[in-house]
Amino acid sequence: MKSKDKFEIISEMAKRRGFFWPSYEIYGGVGGFITFGPLGSILKRRIEDKFRNFYIRPLGILEIESSVIMPGKVFEASGHVDHFKEPIVECLKCKRKFRADHLLQEFAGMSDTETEKLTLQELMNEIKKRNIHCPECGGDFGKTEQFMTMFTTTIGPYSEATGYGRPEAAQGIFVEFKRIYESARGRFPFGVVQIGHALRNEISPRQGPIRLREFTIIDIEFFLDPEDLRCPLLKEVENDTLKLIIAENKLKGIKEPIEVTVKQALNKAYIKAEWQAFFMALAKRFLVELGVPEDKQRFIEKLEWERAHYSVQGFDQEVYLERWGWVEVSGHNYRTDYDLSRHMQFSGVDMKVFKEAEKGGRRFIPHVVEPSFGSDRLVYIALEYAYKTKKNRTLLSLSRELAPIQVGVFPLVSKDGLPEKAKEVYQMLIREGFTVEWDESGSIGRRYARADEVGTPLGVTIDYQTLENGTVTIRDRDTWRQVRSKIEELPELLHAYFRRKIDFEDLGQLIKR
Amino acid sequence: MKSKDKFEIISEMAKRRGFFWPSYEIYGGVGGFITFGPLGSILKRRIEDKFRNFYIRPLGILEIESSVIMPGKVFEASGHVDHFKEPIVECLKCKRKFRADHLLQEFAGMSDTETEKLTLQELMNEIKKRNIHCPECGGDFGKTEQFMTMFTTTIGPYSEATGYGRPEAAQGIFVEFKRIYESARGRFPFGVVQIGHALRNEISPRQGPIRLREFTIIDIEFFLDPEDLRCPLLKEVENDTLKLIIAENKLKGIKEPIEVTVKQALNKAYIKAEWQAFFMALAKRFLVELGVPEDKQRFIEKLEWERAHYSVQGFDQEVYLERWGWVEVSGHNYRTDYDLSRHMQFSGVDMKVFKEAEKGGRRFIPHVVEPSFGSDRLVYIALEYAYKTKKNRTLLSLSRELAPIQVGVFPLVSKDGLPEKAKEVYQMLIREGFTVEWDESGSIGRRYARADEVGTPLGVTIDYQTLENGTVTIRDRDTWRQVRSKIEELPELLHAYFRRKIDFEDLGQLIKR
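^ Those are the sequences you sent over. The predicted structure of the assembly is below.
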């Protein structure tokens, strides 16, 4: 029997314990949609909050929230109506449709760097030349065509009012730039972030949470003076190392990344804008915080023909996953003034900013550096990297900020007043704002195991001693060690623990065994 | 000059200070979409988090997150494809389209209770009879037709794969009921909530944040045993009073609500299900927490022909707003087993639950009681009710849990090392996880005024005394009183204050003036 890979193990656990699963199973499933269950939706929110604490608040980045459905004009201006397309090919026999480039990748071993370069005609020629047929029925393929991968709809009762599902949250920021800049009250440079659902009408998505038609995007648009791309915070990260596969080496077929410090990457002009290098260093640190070691991360530069239409330099941050190899986890694009210029042109509204200088001042269209993440992938990545086994048991070693359930509360036995006492502790912790799971079924060992499997860092057990002296045991998920503490001290201790002011051994008196 | 009403004042402030504004202004605007700016997006999130703390965590309700675009089958089963429609009428001259019922309400003074009852033909007859013409060009109207108010799209490359934008988050829960029930591990009854964007393709939305095409919905589906609708938590709320306009009185034309306790409402069978009464009482308490006094709230029962197709009893919770009068803020529907039964029928998948009983057990389709809120309206309502003036200055008296900015940090003057010292305090508070605003421009009075206008409860000022003894002043937004405390004690003091363990006067030594 083939042993299960991590994706299979995580997916099975994610389904059973309520992290996530493919949506609409009762209707046979629809590719590219997942549902986050009770634990997954908390984990996802915690990852987004960690991102806020890591990226947004310390940098004073402003967060906004706008709509998923946007009027056609926005994406005509942004270039998406013209460029957001994928090559599609139909089987003449069974009428199934496929991504032309994916066929060449899957059945002719071409890389995406190679397929990205091909025109529609060339894609068709390659498919013919390499004798690729419909993988479902063996039929011949027809002509390759462009398929627009935005979801299309109509806004209101007039059929000409086309609307699109946004493929990125970025445009919600660009079109509202003037108002947001107003509330930034003259601060410059400044960043704006939006975390929200986005839609890409993929042709035949697979890969579970990795390739979705609806997903949550985290787009930071950082607005800069094009004449001053310096980042005053660079000092904080300049000695961080980055593994880079630069375009030049990629073209030479070199697959190994070079490892350089942020400072070196800028000195050698591997990365054009200081702010972009800064955000890449932060992105690496953020993934380390999510549990991905440095040697499982790299950045790969996009070649000219691989880049999005708005980008003059782009790096993908990639993380190594057991099943799929290197997978994109964030994109770092230098978008210049492309988007604001286009919206100015299409709307006729001036979006220049004014900057005072010694002699008078200067008006300019800000440039934009964009780090962009997907929450759904981050959830999966955090789970795959947290997955451990200990004595044949599964243990999710999520950091204490990420664990969906913070504390499990367990009455040792279901009699003699222990459940009642435990319920008091449970209610108190809920009132204190903790996410708490109540579990009284089965042996205490099984309950610990269930809690370990979903990464609950602390287990509070109410036993006979509790009734005598008002103390409980607290168990550590990773070491399985236990301490004893007073119930009335739990709130302060746990707040301090989850705010990382103290560690497990500070929670009480260690129980020797 | 006509004095501004609160809606105008709040909207102007919301735009200027970055709470919210109509989206896509640079393209002339598109009705029914708003953007939450930097302060609004935090306020909205805080309201949603307060809801979680109030409704979700104490009741052990499970939260999920699913997609906004859903396959057609879901809404065929749910009945939305057949029922989610509004009557529309086109001007024969200018081709503009209008809601037929809204025309009768606006130009013939009919109530929505009256118009809801009319068939398409009757609507048309009334429009003719009352001689209503196009309000834009005076033209005659054509035939009244049904307009489906779900956004329609196509999922993937096959044109027959219709998808809809979800008009409620509830269906994302119903179609995944089996999986969610699995992760509830036998708990019953139990609730599931989803907070997320929803879409309704309104014909001509006005009223700013009150009627939107895209909005955030909070749907709780509480699953019950139809043979046991009792709510064990009823004791907690049974003496709360509710103002009810019951269907019977509404039919008699009585417009004044009756005021009864929850217990009475159930005894007199005004409300059918105990859980529904419980959730209505919580909804009232929640709105009180958001700042809406009891006498500005009421519940109005839906008549048979006003109810959604899935509901056997429905109440709207209404809040009084200065411009629009009574506005729906939450809906409380007893959906029975309608949705789960329909999905069973359409998918062929069994969704019954098993309940052990003394003699064997019983399998049944759960019944559902649904409280449903809209976040966007809650944001507006919280702002309108927080709006105060004091000595001709605007002051937003948002509760400390809701205020977007928790602490303002102000160097008294921009010299002598005060900004540097203030920056240290600012950074420390950011690291502690607080939402902090830095402001050093203009007089300290103006900075306090700017902070009061957006509801920042505390202002920390760094002055010359700070450099001497490491103390700062903390100012209270509502009373403008000040206390002095040590910088190193700020983190603990502020955590305690925002967790409501202490009040303003406990933050330090009162400064007498």
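Residues 38-56 of chain B form the longest helix (19 residues). Chain B has a mean pLDDT of 95.

Shout if you want it in another format.
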